[in-house]
Amino acid sequence: MKRILLILLAFCFVIATEAKAQSRLYPLDYSYDDCRYLNKNLDNFTNFAFDIRPGWILSYRCCFFDASDSTIVLRNVNYFSDKSLLGLIKKLFGKTKFKTKVEEYRCSISPKATKCLRELFLSAIYSSSYLAYVSGFDGETYRVYVERFGSFVMAECFSPFDDSSNCGKLVEILYSISDAIKQNNPQAIENLIPMAEELTESFKSLYPEEYRHIKD
Predict the structure, then answer these.
(1) Contacting residues for 108 by C-beta, under 8 A, at least 6 apart
(2) 124: closest CA among 202, 213, 64?
(3) What is the rounded CA–CA span in Å between residue 31 and residue 46?
């Protein structure tokens, strides 16, 4: 009995440590609803994408690479144009319709940065684990997507406890990309390449040894 309790405690410790360290993302199954604001014309959506969702989803931001003109696109999606308490109550009780407002920004991106970010997101997804599930109400959820063979693979993490963890560094990159697009600053995206490459290798180090040679 003692041995069983020790094993269970050790197992719980591993899960808790993994969640606190947040070295991995949590894998997700694809659904169209997850991607509906990434690109209205999904034929143009290739390579990679991400979105940032608050705990209470009144608005969120999503970003994707548009192959039609080799730009990276940011969309800020606001579900409630009327943010007053009365307006929200009316919407919740069906008195008025929800109005979704979408703001779009575009920025050019080099082939090198495109490849680098795709590899980063893919390594984050490949190294994800069901043991890495963390959630809450007071925070944000960060999802990354990669298109492969005509379908999507995806994973997410919740607001990192540790900014120096893999998830913490990934979140920093996502916000930096968002800011660069909004400011139409391609150089700022280029400046992220060294950090993204280093983080990619960190995620790849989490692969099982027999799969570390996989690139795509």
Answers:
(1) 70, 71, 72, 186
(2) 202
(3) 16
pLDDT at 157 over 90: yes
Contacts of 158 by beta carbon, 8 Å cutoff, 6+ apart: 134, 135, 136, 139, 140, 141, 142
The predicted model scores a pTM of: 0.79
Res 1: pLDDT: 46
DSSP code at position 144: E
CA atoms within 13 A on the CB side of 187: 0
Tokens of 30: 């694809």
The pLDDT tens digits for 162-198 are 889 999 999 999 999 999 999 999 999 999 999 999 9
Given a cut of 70, whether residue 120 has pLDDT beyond it is yes
Quick check: 98 and 178 in contact, CB under 8 A? Answer: no
Nearest C-alpha neighbor of 64 from the set 20, 106, 32, 115: 106
Residues with Cβ within 8 Å of 55's Cβ and at least 6 positions away in sequence, in order, are 136, 137, 138, 139, 140, 141
Closest CA to 21 of 127, 100, 107: 127
Burial class of residue 214 in the structure, from the number of CB atoms within 10 Å of its CB (0-12 exposed, 13-18 middle, 19+ buried)? exposed
